[in-house]
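[Discussion] Sanity-checking designs against the backbone

I'm trying to build intuition for which residues belong where. Below is a structure token string of 101 positions. I'd appreciate it if someone posts a full sequence so I can compare it with mine line by line.
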């Protein structure tokens, strides 16, 4: 019975990870397609005299960067590894306090 739960937990974590990756790559694909479309529209409306599509690329790009940081654990301060370590630290601390009470 114990192995079944471990396998089920592994499966659920893997499925969650795949869903995160799908969302990120969907966002990235949308970004590339929409910004490309805006660039083409920009070129045909006024040439490159004012490249207004870069404002959209910049704004959405910032959001995309933060999405990548969350998806690929690129934040060294508050990534998932930090979260796991902090949870373990707090659980150990709580356990030690209960021993002394």
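Best answer:
Here's mine. Compare freely.
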């Amino acid at each position: 019975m114990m192995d079944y739960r471990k396998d089920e937990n592994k499966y659920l974590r893997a499925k969650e990870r795949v869903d995160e990756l799908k969302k990120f790559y969907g966002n990235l694909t949308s970004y590339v397609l929409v910004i490309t479309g805006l660039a083409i529209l920009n070129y045909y409306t006024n040439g490159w005299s004012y490249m207004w599509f870069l404002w959209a690329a910049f704004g959405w790009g910032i959001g995309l960067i933060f999405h990548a940081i969350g998806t690929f654990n690129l934040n060294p301060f508050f990534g998932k590894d930090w979260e796991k370590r902090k949870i373990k630290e707090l659980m150990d601390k709580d356990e030690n306090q209960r021993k002394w009470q």
